[in-house]
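User: quick one, fold this
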Amino acid sequence: MPSFHVLVVDDDPLVCKGLKFNLEQAGYKVSTASTAHNALELSQRNPFDAAILDIGLPDDNGLDLCKKLKKQRDLPVIFLTARRRELDEIVGLEIGADDYITKPFSADIVLAHLRAVLRRVSRPITEPLAAEQALRAGPFELNPVNHTAQKDGLDLDLAPREFELLRMFMSYPERAFTSEELVEGVWGVEFVGEPQVLYVQVRSLRMKIEEDASSPKHILTLRGVGYKFAP
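Assistant:
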């Protein structure tokens, strides 16, 4: 049985009560909060293993709360979202979100997402040694060890998923990737989210590495297939 301690933050008491009940039935320890202030107070007293956050909170928003929680402890964060605009913010901004769940949701979906992010962060640090190799492709350089990426010698300010996506592209220049292959390579085979997360992430990466994101020269869309990287 899992022994992880999960923080649930939502200003809807029915959501908190329902998630607490279902997660505890699955063996998790659960603490709940209805405001960002209360969540931060709880996190200072408890070494949470994961957090499930709603974006709309009465005293702050979940995006800012995510950043503050991750400063205290590098824990996986799952967002609850109901609107497309919120999803774009979650995926596109450098907030360190690990996953998201769209409303309405079932208890089984929440449990599947939670197990997936906890498996990802529980992987041993030595898992793929080959992934530690520095990469060079055209004007791009990427170093997984110190998590830096450059284009034409200038630093690229990449969020974690953007970095992993660029690393996968640079590992296989000119290769045609299906969307499924990219999701599996970046998010893992256990990912249970929606394909839309990849589209938003590709768009975000293009904005940072392309001269004109609306007419990309490096990350090319292959209609009916997926994407390829042209360094």
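User: anything notable?
Assistant: Residues 124-131 have pLDDT under 50 and may be disordered.
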